[in-house]
Amino acid sequence: MGSSQSQLTAEELRDYRELTFLTKKEILHAFKRFKGIAVGEVLADKHARIPVKYIEQMPEFKCNPFRDRLLRVFSSCKDERMSFEDFLDLLSVLCEDAPVDVKAEYAFQIFDMDDDGVLGEDDLAEVIKRLTSWDSGCRLETPDVQRLIEQVLAEADLDRSGHMSLMEFQHCMLKNPDFARFSVETGVLVSPAMLLQQGKWQSSFSLRL
Prior knowledge:
By secondary structure, the protein is mostly helical. Helix content is about 55%, strand content about 5%. The chain has two domains: about 10-95, EF-hand (Recoverin, domain 1), CATH 1.10.238.10; about 100-185, Orthogonal Bundle (Recoverin, domain 1). It has helices at about 10-20, 25-35, 40-45, 50-55, 60, 65-75, 85-95, 100-110, 120-135, 140-155, 165-175, 175-185, and strands at about 50, 80, 195, 200-205.
């Protein structure tokens, strides 16, 4: 079974169940997957922080244009590494049972490319660029990108400040089905990224416009 340093205790499992939106089975499978990414490090210390470049190679992340932002936002030390608890937080927020307001808060951070606490035109342009670059058939010309940014801000920028605050973003997510659908379909907000189904992890990073 391995040493106590490489296994989750009953107390840890109980705490993780209370602090996440995941089931015991999902937590155990998440730990198995995390341990499989860097076996030596995690076997030596289950609290090890492993390089995010290892996690980026997981099939569930490789095709996601926001993988760098996802892993940065959920890295508690912002050190290009993640602990199992960081990894578990990520899975918890992306699972189907997480409340929409929680998902919206983290989606906001992921879209906030310059980490300045608001979503401005540059942030939205980068989001659109990443989404459309993923599929060469969906690439937009600069005027189309600007027009889309203006439409988003016209809908979401309630105080006409020229950018979106977290509160405005959450308001649009909760009140506007079209805006919510946009965020869902980026694969960042509502789609469960990695849920345990029939013993396998399935990616739901849907990227459609």
